[in-house]
Structures are given as C-alpha cells and as structure tokens.
C-alpha cells in the first residue's frame, strides 16, 4: 500500500531499527519506546489489521512472536512482557497495517499502564453472549 508507513519500512524506503527479518515478517523497535525494547512485529504483506488476515498469514505472524519476545526480554533484562494487538481506532490502532506490540516490563511503575475493571459476573448474560458469538 503506497501510503502505509509500515509498508515503506518493509520496502526499505524509511529506515528502522530491525531486530528480526525473514521472508514473511519484520520486527523493529517502535520509535515511541513506551518501555525500553518496545518492538513491533509486522507481516510483510499488507493487512489493515488482524481482523482482515487469513489463518495462514496470521499463523505465520504469530509463529514468530514468542521467539522474538524471548530475545527482547533476554537482551533488555525485562521481568515480563505485554504482547498487544490493537484492531481499529476505537481499540487504539493508529497505524493501519497489522502489528503486534512487544512491550517489555521492568516494574509496575514503568510507562505502560493497563487496567482491567472487574465487575460482578452476570452468568445468564454470559451464557447468552457466548451462544450468540458461537453462532456468528
């Protein structure tokens, strides 16, 4: 795609700090560096996001994520890792080329903050929603 920044990085038109590359996937340091070692793993083929990918393409991408994540953790001395994928603007996607964020974690006080709010479960509603999803 002509106006996609990640496609331009893959084509070598824009420089990047590569940490991994093969014929299907490229991984490079995110310029934002939310935490030191923050890496993006992208398929070389353009897809808007994971929701647009087929099974083979997504399996090629995710087959590489654990090894790249381990290398980032080893190189940075991180204590943990958030692996994040945002799909569409409402979910925080800002570049519309599939990418997986590898965000090394060093402490609970680093610059990445994720919060999940727990609610009392409504089990009948969960059963109903699960059935609806299964049938879609």
From TrEMBL:
Q: Known SUPFAM superfamilies for this protein?
A: HIT-like
Name the InterPro entries on file: HINT (IPR039384), Histidine_triad_HIT (IPR001310), HIT-like (IPR011146), HIT-like_sf (IPR036265)
Q: How is this protein named in the record?
A: HIT family protein
Q: Which organism is it from?
A: Streptococcus panodentis
Q: Which residues form a coiled coil?
A: none
Domain HIT intervals: 5-112
Q: What superkingdom does the record give?
A: Bacteria
Q: Where is this motif: Histidine triad motif?
A: 97-101
Gene3D superfamilies per UniProt: HIT-like (3.30.428.10)
